[in-house]
């Protein structure tokens, strides 16, 4: 993975020009006039989410025979109906909030998403899902390419990454996305106070205007500094956001609270990145045990997303928001000897939002162990993809962001049946 | 106090160490390059007594909560390692330990979740000399092997308790082989992605089946601990075939062996991986990016040369590193500062450049986290992404703010040391630019620093003015983009 990042470094850096547009009052104005913005929240489930524990085919006998300790008992799933292949599906029992959102028709699952010869490597896999390019996983991120397509000058706060380092999906050629893990900690410190501190901050801003454009590696760091200094004041308004409903204290919950705060304060951000990790459950996956590893993952995911959904609904921002999730791979169908699951292939994606047509898209795998089973691969060991993940991205780009997926994805991946937005 | 600039020695110590304390610079600047490299790689000739100075006056501070327990409390383990980075007289040993920590990246949190916080810190960071059960934590194992033989290191890693928990080797049983370690030893620890196949991963998992842990010692005995054990009853005895050669004659099948003989499978695979030409090239390219330059792709001439040195010297990393530090690529002035400083490199170098009296490394831990680097907690088994990914907006702000916190903490020392260079703003600036080496500063930036010194009132060089302007200036320099390179 390090190599690919470096290759990006080599090829991708352009001059950084950060302008301080004044989108704040413009956005406020637009909202007062009833205009809608279209925010995208990219959610990465890190480690390889076990789709079969999240969206359970509870009538498939092979699900139970192949997962003697990990299978969710049919009686425990939260039934959400059958898909177009008549497979009955249920959510993991901890996903009660997602069940509510599903029942309101605002959550779509796209089943069996993946690509040809899917990588079982976390790192290559994440790079491929991030770039949407299995043949050049060292390139820019697909969201980064979207940001590059925006007309300049691009607001330095157009994107907000809630983690501390830049994820590959947001890597752009000439747009630098700020990483703001905590709005409260996003402030300028000084060894001095008063006029001296103000003089230092003014000096820092002026120093950072001298971008050495002939040295792209140094110029890159200038881009980060400029973006930091140029966004401090607007981010400070987010730190003071107090939602009406409580968010979980998990990192994921707090990140979503910051995202909602940014939307409520209308600071101009359109693209958000959040992540929750720990999905690499090779051992002691404990899908069913309260406080078990996977059970807790579902709790974190569910409680964070439900708080976010409810907050946005009460703020009238649900129709302005689309959440799309991805993970680098699904997991092996049969459990391993450590009561866990190894790296697999196709997985499931979620899309949530006020304008989402919820439901079950695509068909579930059939889990019988016949090596010729067309829904599986790797000697019926792993789930074979049905929907190219880029088709989901294409729908998001065309149907939500209003851009042209063919130019951003470098090919036509549109799939007519994906009508989730 | 002001240093004579010695660009070559400073470059060497930024790369083979964490920058230079004034006393280190005094020692190394008396040496030729060849002598300095010899001294760095032959560090076993220098006594390893740095830990005796923990908590003593004159050294960077640590913060204790009850007894200082780096063998059982991960916060203290982190403090001890930062202390060593600042004060060890074996800088290359610490630098290589960091390199290997990133290469064999193991995260404390998963281990703590599996076996508890105290035990996890023990298997990550205890020294055998301080543990009742003589447990040598992973970082001590890496430190012992820092410039050892890569094959021996790889084997120690395969048998390391923390690694056996981290990548689930402790659960690798013949009925259902556990693939996690087998995949990463090929993908990340040796040959690299593209040089192995999925069936190789499955075969590798069978090779390491039975490489488990056992508990040694009686209950309630402080010496009780877990350690590697070859569990013959859980070893898959059938033959394993790979897509790459395993033996010197080019054959690629590890033969079927009895369970009692089966540990040899893993030794054969470790030998094969250590001796694979792709491993040599993978390590050479990684050494290039860590020690030589991150600007542009690794120089193929360097990679070929270092890969050959690695193979010819039978994986002896001391021979490899001596060669790395003597290559023309390393000494090409265009690679000076051609590497993005890792957060710990930035923090430790700032301490060495700005001062540490009265500062506790504990106060660097949260800033380091905000910069994206928590020691003993790499984001995943691939280690830190490094390079430009260190420089997210929030992380850059965290660097600027650490520079502010440290210069604030050192306010009086900075003002005092600046006193005799403070006749004019320009002389003060010149002094501090000598103390904090950066990649080339644009003349416009230097002018802005001068403007800052002249702002808020006439230049008097009074104590009060120096106590404001010296830390303010140091904050601006250490927080500048140009200081973020080593």
Descriptive overview:
Chain A is of the alpha/beta class and 421 residues long. Chain A has one domain: Alkaline Phosphatase, subunit A, CATH 3.40.720. Chain A contains 13 helices and 13 strands. In chain A, strands 1, 5, 6, 7, 8, 9, 10 and 13 form an eight-stranded mixed beta sheet that branches. A three-stranded antiparallel beta sheet of chain A has the order 2-4-3. Chain A is globular and about 70 Å long. Chain B has a domain at 279-335. The two termini of chain B are 22 Å apart. Chains A and B meet through α1, α6, α8 and α9 of A and α11, α14, α19, α20 and α23 of B.
Helix-strand blueprint:
The complex is a heterodimer of chains A (421) and B (486).
Chain A lengths: L1 H11 L10 H10 L6 E7 L5 H4 E2 L4 H6 L11 E5 L5 E4 L4 H8 L3 E8 L7 H10 L10 H7 L10 E3 L32 H14 L8 H24 L11 H14 L6 E6 L16 H22 L6 E6 L20 E7 L5 E3 L14 E2 L4 E2 L3 E2 H13 L3 H5 L12
Parallel strand pairs in A: 1-7, 1-8, 5-10, 5-13, 6-7
Antiparallel strand pairs in A: 2-4, 3-4, 5-9, 8-9, 11-12
Helix pairs in contact in A: 5-11, 9-10, 10-11
Chain B lengths: L6 H10 L5 H7 L4 H9 L32 H14 L3 H13 L4 H8 L1 H9 L12 H7 L5 H9 L2 H6 L13 H10 L8 H10 L3 E6 L8 E6 L9 E2 L11 E2 L8 H12 L2 H16 L7 H13 L4 H10 L1 H4 L11 H12 L10 H7 L21 H17 L1 H8 L6 H11 L7 H12 L8 H16 L8
Antiparallel strand pairs in B: 1-2, 3-4
Helix pairs in contact in B: 1-3, 3-16, 6-7, 9-13, 11-12, 14-15, 18-20, 19-20, 20-24, 21-24, 22-24
């Amino acid at each position: 993975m390090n190599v690919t990042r470096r290759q990006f470094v080599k090829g991708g850096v352009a001059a950084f020009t950060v302008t301080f547009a004044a989108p704040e009052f413009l956005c406020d104005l637009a909202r007062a006039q009833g205009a809608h913005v279209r925010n995208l929240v990219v959610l990465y489930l890190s480690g390889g989410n076990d789709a079969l524990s999240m969206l359970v085919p509870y009538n498939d006998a092979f699900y139970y025979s192949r997962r003697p300790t990990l299978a969710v008992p049919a009686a425990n799933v939260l039934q959400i109906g059958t898909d177009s292949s008549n497979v009955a599906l249920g959510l993991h029992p901890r996903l009660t909030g997602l069940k509510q959102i599903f029942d309101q028709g605002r959550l779509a699952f796209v089943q069996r998403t993946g690509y040809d010869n899917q990588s079982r490597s976390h790192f290559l896999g994440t790079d491929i899902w991030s770039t949407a390019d299995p043949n050049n996983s060292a390139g820019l991120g697909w969201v980064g390419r979207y940001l590059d397509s925006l007309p300049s000058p691009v607001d330095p706060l157009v994107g907000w990454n809630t983690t501390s380092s830049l994820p590959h999906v947001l890597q752009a050629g000439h747009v630098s996305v700020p990483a703001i893990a905590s709005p409260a900690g996003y402030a300028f410190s000084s060894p001095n106070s008063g006029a001296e501190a103000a003089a230092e901050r003014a000096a820092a801003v002026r120093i950072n205007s001298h971008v050495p454009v002939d040295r792209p590696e140094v110029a890159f760091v200038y881009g980060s500094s400029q973006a930091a200094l140029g966004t401090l004041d607007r981010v400070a308004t987010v730190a003071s956001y107090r939602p009406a409903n409580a968010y979980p204290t998990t990192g994921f919950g707090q990140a979503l609270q910051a995202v909602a705060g940014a939307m409520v304060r209308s600071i101009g951000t359109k693209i958000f990145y959040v992540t929750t990790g720990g999905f690499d459950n090779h051992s002691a996956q404990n899908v069913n045990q309260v406080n078990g590893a996977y059970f807790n993952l579902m709790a974190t995911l569910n409680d964070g997303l439900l708080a976010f959904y409810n907050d946005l609904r009460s703020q009238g921002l649900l129709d302005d928001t689309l959440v799309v999730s991805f993970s680098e791979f699904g997991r092996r169908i049969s459990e391993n000897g450590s009561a866990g699951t190894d790296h697999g292939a196709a997985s499931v994606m979620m899309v949530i939002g006020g304008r989402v047509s919820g439901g079950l898209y695509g068909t579930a795998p059939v889990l019988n162990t016949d090596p010729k089973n067309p829904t599986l691969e790797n000697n019926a060991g792993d789930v074979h993809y049905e929907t190219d993940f880029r088709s989901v991205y294409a729908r998001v780009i065309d149907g939500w962001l209003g851009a042209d997926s063919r130019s951003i994805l470098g090919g036509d991946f549109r799939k007519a049946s994906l009508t989730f937005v | 106090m002001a240093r004579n600039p010695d660009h070559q020695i400073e470059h060497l110590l930024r790369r083979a160490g964490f920058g230079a304390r004034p006393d280190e610079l005094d020692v190394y600047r008396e040496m030729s390059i060849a002598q300095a490299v010899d001294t760095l790689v032959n560090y076993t000739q220098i006594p390893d007594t740095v830990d005796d100075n923990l908590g003593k006056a004159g050294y960077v501070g640590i913060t204790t909560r009850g007894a200082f327990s780096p063998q059982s409390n991960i916060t203290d383990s982190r403090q001890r390692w930062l202390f060593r980075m600042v004060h060890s007289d074996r800088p290359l040993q610490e630098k290589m330990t960091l390199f290997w920590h990133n290469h064999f990246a193991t995260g404390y949190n998963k281990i703590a979740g599996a076996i508890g916080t105290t035990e996890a810190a023990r298997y990550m960071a205890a020294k055998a000399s301080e543990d009742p059960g003589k447990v040598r934590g992973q970082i001590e194992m890496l430190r012992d092997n820092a410039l050892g033989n890569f094959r021996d290191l790889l084997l120690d890693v395969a048998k390391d308790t923390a690694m056996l928990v981290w990548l689930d080797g402790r659960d690798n049983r013949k009925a259902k082989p556990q693939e996690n370690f087998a995949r990463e030893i090929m993908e990340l620890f040796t040959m690299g992605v593209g040089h192995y196949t999925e069936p190789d991963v499955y075969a590798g998992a069978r090779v390491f089946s039975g490489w488990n842990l056992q508990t040694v010692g009686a209950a309630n005995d402080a010496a009780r601990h877990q350690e590697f054990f070859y569990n013959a009853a859980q070893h898959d005895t059938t033959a394993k075939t790979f897509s790459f050669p395993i033996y010197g004659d080019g054959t690629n099948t590890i033969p079927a062996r009895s369970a009692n003989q089966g540990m040899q499978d893993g030794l054969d695979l470790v030998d094969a991986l250590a001796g694979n030409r792709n491993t040599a090239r993978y390590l050479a390219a990684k050494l290039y990016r860590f020690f030589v330059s991150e600007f542009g792709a690794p120089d193929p001439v360097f990679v070929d040369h270092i890969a050959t040195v690695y193979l010819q010297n039978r994986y002896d990393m001391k021979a490899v590193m001596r060669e790395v530090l003597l290559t023309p690529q390393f000494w090409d002035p265009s690679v000076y500062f051609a590497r993005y400083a890792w957060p710990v490199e930035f923090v430790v170098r700032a301490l060495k450049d700005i001062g540490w009296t009265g500062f506790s490394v504990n106060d660097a831990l949260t800033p380091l986290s905000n910069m994206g680097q928590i020691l003993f907690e790499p984001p995943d088994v691939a280690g830190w992404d490094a390079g430009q990914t260190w420089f997210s907006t929030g992380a850059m702000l965290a660097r600027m703010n650490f520079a502010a916190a440290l210069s604030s903490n050192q306010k009086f020392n900075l003002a005092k040391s600046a006193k005799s260079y403070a006749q004019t703003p320009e002389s003060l600036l010149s002094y501090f630019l000598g103390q904090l080496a950066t990649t080339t500063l644009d003349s416009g930036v230097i002018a802005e620093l001068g403007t800052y010194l002249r702002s808020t009132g006439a230049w008097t060089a009074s104590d009060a003015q120096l106590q404001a302007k010296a830390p303010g200036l140091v904050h601006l320099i250490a927080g500048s983009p140009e200081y973020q390179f080593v």
